[in-house]
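User: New here, any thoughts?
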Amino acid sequence: MAPTETCSTGAACDLPGQARRSATPDKTARRSQTMLIWHRTRFRALAAVCIFATSLAVAACSSAASAGPVSPGFTGYDWQVVAISHGGKVTSIPARWRVALQFSPGGQFGANDSVNFHSGTYRATRDGFTTSGMGATAAGYAGHDPAVLLAISAIGSFDNGVHATVKLTGDRLVVGVDSYTLTCQRRGTS
């Protein structure tokens, strides 16, 4: 770098007789910068495609692995949750909230807590089922209704790898998950 002295404005000035360097990059420097940006952009696009393809493969594997034959009597139906027991207290759940569980014959599981919908897959077990691949919508609830809050907590208990017990008697299904017991009435087919 060429020696400089301070000008009256406080900026650096070249000394007399010194060659001045241009502030604009030459063609080679610009080409190098352009190639670097192009390579970065190409790398990011390739990484995004790889991530997308991997997520598709994982999703296909999880649904294929869980879509085995499911034959218990509760499959293929929508079940309206009519009551939830927790901590020794039973709370009725009004039908207008549409709190429900869904079990498709192909192994898809769905649960509506009146605010959000939870979905994933399930696998039948000797005494109930186990959920996996769970996801949910993310709406908030700013209310204070204890029955709605209870439904949100109970349905939220169906997490990845959680085992739920089931007792089926005619059109009535009783599901135990975590510290909750959901009493359901058959509503229709899934």
Notes: Residues 25-66 form one domain.
